[in-house]
Design brief:
CATH architecture: Alpha-Beta Barrel
Shape: globular
Mean pLDDT: 91
CATH class: Alpha Beta
CATH topology: TIM Barrel
Structural class: alpha/beta
Order of helices and strands: EHEHEEHEEHEEHEHH
Radius of gyration: 16 Å
Strand content: 15-25%
Largest sheet: 9 strands, mixed
Strand order of the largest sheet: 7-6-5-4-3-2-1-8-9
Oligomer: single chain
């Protein structure tokens, strides 16, 4: 099976991708989706309800940067301490995933790394300076952590840019065993997707962006 570990839908403030479109693209490309919307699991729950299995994730905006929980049952609140977010993820029996952990180009990258993660995103398709992806890969090797790749897709054409080819699994234990042996397929997205996502965020949240500008 092919798994893209980092996908956003219209439930994120900077994406227009509907669940219908996500389902269509995943079927076309033979992908199993991991839905990691910003600060919500609503999109993932709706996808599972209407279209079938997916991994329910959330990209949480913590005080120290973005952190993803995988196999969540409950939403993690935003703007909490990253260490509290890790504890809340683990309390659910879910997995702690570090997205684009060293990408200094984006302000949302993790500022601290001194906690026990399960998985490191060693290649993010939206990371433009590949030294940052390389640093993530080296970090995973050093700490003997599982490796994954993600498109970080906010637009439908990005979905499946990166994926892991891995065996099917029945539970989280099987998932981790399968990921350990996975083949990671890597490719970069167009550099224009980042400013395009900023535009979408402004379009969907004009009042919020105006307040931010006026501060």
């Amino acid at each position: 099976m092919k798994i893209d570990f980092h996908i956003h839908t219209k439930y994120s403030p900077d994406s227009f991708t509907t669940l219908e479109v996500l389902n269509k693209v995943c079927k076309k490309k033979g992908l199993f989706p991991v839905i990691t919307d910003h600060d919500t699991i609503k999109g993932a729950l709706e996808f599972k309800k209407h279209f079938g299995p997916c991994i329910i994730g959330e990209e949480v905006d913590t005080k120290q940067g973005d952190l993803i929980g995988l196999f969540l049952n409950e939403e993690i609140p935003r703007k909490i301490d990253v260490y509290e977010a890790v504890d809340r993820i683990r309390e659910q029996g879910a997995l702690v995933y570090m997205p684009h952990p060293f990408d200094k180009v984006r302000s949302s990258a993790l500022k601290v790394h001194d906690f026990k993660a399960d998985i490191v995103e060693v290649f993010n398709a939206r990371v433009m300076l590949q030294n940052y992806n390389k640093k993530a890969d080296e970090y995973a090797d050093k700490h003997k952590l599982l490796k994954a790749v993600g498109s970080d897709a906010h637009f439908s054409r990005e979905i499946g840019t990166c994926y892991a080819e891995m065996d099917s699994f029945d539970d989280i234990k099987g998932f981790k065993q399968s990921l350990r042996k996975a083949r990671l397929v890597k490719a970069t997205s167009s550099p224009f997707v980042l400013p395009a996502a900023k535009f979408v965020h402004c379009y969907k949240n004009p009042i919020h962006m105006l307040k931010k500008f006026l501060r």
